[in-house]
Amino acid sequence: MSAVQPSQAPDLEAQGATGAPAPDDQAHASLSPDDLARLTDALIEALKSVYDPEIPVDIYELGLIYRVDVSDDMDVRIDMTLTAPGCPVAGEMPGWVEDAVRKVEGVRSASVNLTFDPPWDPSKMSDEAKLALNMF
Description:
globular
Protein backbone atom coordinates (compact mmCIF):
# COMPACT_ATOMS: atom_id res chain seq x y z
CA MET A 1 0.00 0.00 0.00
CA SER A 2 1.32 3.44 -0.78
CA ALA A 3 1.69 6.38 1.54
CA VAL A 4 -1.52 7.99 2.76
CA GLN A 5 -0.84 11.30 4.42
CA PRO A 6 -2.47 13.56 6.92
CA SER A 7 0.66 15.75 6.79
CA GLN A 8 3.73 13.52 6.85
CA ALA A 9 1.79 10.30 7.10
CA PRO A 10 3.02 6.82 7.59
CA ASP A 11 4.13 4.65 4.77
CA LEU A 12 1.17 2.31 4.26
CA GLU A 13 2.43 -0.61 2.20
CA ALA A 14 1.23 -3.99 1.12
CA GLN A 15 4.18 -6.13 0.18
CA GLY A 16 3.98 -6.49 -3.59
CA ALA A 17 0.97 -4.16 -3.62
CA THR A 18 -0.58 -1.38 -5.61
CA GLY A 19 -2.27 1.28 -3.55
CA ALA A 20 -3.86 4.66 -3.39
CA PRO A 21 -3.02 7.48 -3.74
CA ALA A 22 0.25 6.73 -5.54
CA PRO A 23 0.19 3.25 -7.05
CA ASP A 24 3.43 1.36 -7.39
CA ASP A 25 4.43 -1.03 -10.15
CA GLN A 26 3.32 -4.39 -8.80
CA ALA A 27 -0.21 -5.71 -8.36
CA HIS A 28 -1.17 -7.21 -5.02
CA ALA A 29 -1.72 -10.92 -5.48
CA SER A 30 -5.00 -11.15 -3.60
CA LEU A 31 -6.58 -7.69 -3.55
CA SER A 32 -8.17 -5.67 -6.31
CA PRO A 33 -7.38 -1.94 -6.36
CA ASP A 34 -10.84 -1.25 -4.90
CA ASP A 35 -10.31 -3.79 -2.11
CA LEU A 36 -6.88 -2.32 -1.39
CA ALA A 37 -8.37 1.18 -1.19
CA ARG A 38 -11.04 -0.11 1.22
CA LEU A 39 -8.36 -1.82 3.32
CA THR A 40 -6.31 1.38 3.41
CA ASP A 41 -9.34 3.37 4.54
CA ALA A 42 -10.24 0.76 7.17
CA LEU A 43 -6.70 0.69 8.56
CA ILE A 44 -6.60 4.47 8.78
CA GLU A 45 -10.01 4.49 10.48
CA ALA A 46 -8.75 1.91 12.99
CA LEU A 47 -5.60 3.93 13.68
CA LYS A 48 -7.67 7.08 14.11
CA SER A 49 -9.71 5.32 16.83
CA VAL A 50 -6.68 5.30 19.15
CA TYR A 51 -5.96 8.41 21.20
CA ASP A 52 -3.11 9.49 23.41
CA PRO A 53 -5.03 10.01 26.69
CA GLU A 54 -3.15 13.24 27.38
CA ILE A 55 -3.87 14.81 23.97
CA PRO A 56 -7.36 15.15 22.43
CA VAL A 57 -6.15 14.11 18.96
CA ASP A 58 -5.88 10.59 17.52
CA ILE A 59 -2.46 8.99 16.98
CA TYR A 60 -2.77 9.05 13.19
CA GLU A 61 -3.33 12.81 13.00
CA LEU A 62 -0.62 13.34 15.62
CA GLY A 63 1.82 11.69 13.22
CA LEU A 64 2.75 8.87 15.59
CA ILE A 65 2.32 6.18 12.91
CA TYR A 66 5.46 5.95 10.79
CA ARG A 67 4.82 2.86 8.68
CA VAL A 68 2.19 0.19 8.10
CA ASP A 69 3.11 -2.95 6.17
CA VAL A 70 0.50 -5.47 5.07
CA SER A 71 1.71 -8.86 3.90
CA ASP A 72 -0.03 -10.98 1.28
CA ASP A 73 -1.32 -13.07 4.20
CA MET A 74 -2.89 -9.92 5.72
CA ASP A 75 -0.45 -9.70 8.60
CA VAL A 76 -0.09 -6.02 9.54
CA ARG A 77 3.17 -4.66 10.93
CA ILE A 78 3.20 -1.09 12.26
CA ASP A 79 6.13 1.17 13.14
CA MET A 80 5.07 3.94 15.46
CA THR A 81 6.45 6.36 17.99
CA LEU A 82 5.21 8.29 20.99
CA THR A 83 5.25 12.01 21.67
CA ALA A 84 8.00 11.39 24.24
CA PRO A 85 10.01 8.34 25.33
CA GLY A 86 8.72 8.76 28.88
CA CYS A 87 5.07 8.74 27.79
CA PRO A 88 3.00 7.24 30.63
CA VAL A 89 1.16 4.89 28.24
CA ALA A 90 4.30 3.64 26.44
CA GLY A 91 3.67 0.11 27.66
CA GLU A 92 -0.03 0.14 26.76
CA MET A 93 -0.46 2.11 23.54
CA PRO A 94 1.14 -0.45 21.20
CA GLY A 95 -1.41 -2.98 22.45
CA TRP A 96 -4.24 -0.53 21.84
CA VAL A 97 -3.04 -0.07 18.26
CA GLU A 98 -2.72 -3.84 17.70
CA ASP A 99 -6.23 -4.40 19.07
CA ALA A 100 -7.73 -1.69 16.84
CA VAL A 101 -6.02 -3.00 13.69
CA ARG A 102 -6.94 -6.64 14.41
CA LYS A 103 -10.62 -5.60 14.25
CA VAL A 104 -10.27 -4.59 10.59
CA GLU A 105 -12.01 -7.14 8.39
CA GLY A 106 -9.55 -9.48 6.72
CA VAL A 107 -6.58 -8.70 8.96
CA ARG A 108 -5.04 -11.92 10.24
CA SER A 109 -2.62 -10.44 12.76
CA ALA A 110 -1.17 -7.12 13.88
CA SER A 111 2.12 -6.23 15.55
CA VAL A 112 3.57 -2.89 16.60
CA ASN A 113 7.21 -1.91 16.68
CA LEU A 114 7.77 1.11 18.92
CA THR A 115 10.60 3.33 17.69
CA PHE A 116 12.00 6.73 18.57
CA ASP A 117 14.02 7.12 15.39
CA PRO A 118 13.24 9.63 14.14
CA PRO A 119 11.95 11.27 17.31
CA TRP A 120 8.46 12.72 17.12
CA ASP A 121 8.05 16.49 16.94
CA PRO A 122 5.03 18.73 16.27
CA SER A 123 5.91 19.08 12.58
CA LYS A 124 4.64 15.50 12.11
CA MET A 125 1.08 16.52 13.04
CA SER A 126 -1.57 17.01 10.39
CA ASP A 127 -3.20 20.40 9.92
CA GLU A 128 -6.32 18.88 11.51
CA ALA A 129 -4.35 18.03 14.66
CA LYS A 130 -2.72 21.46 14.77
CA LEU A 131 -6.13 23.10 14.44
CA ALA A 132 -7.59 20.93 17.24
CA LEU A 133 -4.69 21.89 19.49
CA ASN A 134 -4.69 25.60 18.50
CA MET A 135 -1.14 25.32 17.16
CA PHE A 136 -1.46 27.57 14.10
